[in-house]
Sequence to fold (103 residues):
Amino acid sequence: MQVVPDPTTVHFHLPNNLSVRVHKEYDKFIDELTSYFPHEKEGILKFYSECWKIFNALNSLELKSLEEPLYLFGQFFQKPLECLTLGTFIMFILNCKATNFNS
Fold:
């Protein structure tokens, strides 16, 4: 069976007939997104730069079970930088939730 690749992975249909496609090619996606929000280009690039750090850290780990302390400990010694990247992100998210909860 022949498979035909889809050039986009997600297509967002937003209010005011705004339509943003998430292209498989990252640069095409960023170009399209920043064309709709040119005044937000710097923030968009920063945001997705942080997303890539998290994605790359997750992608480098062999994730079997996050509930096994010995397994996580072993992963930390194999990939310390990636684990610290994820740990920093998790602490940031927890801090944001705590800040919003206390407001």
User: Anything to note?
Assistant: Strands lie at 8-14, 18-23. Residues 54 and 86 are 6 Å apart (CA to CA).
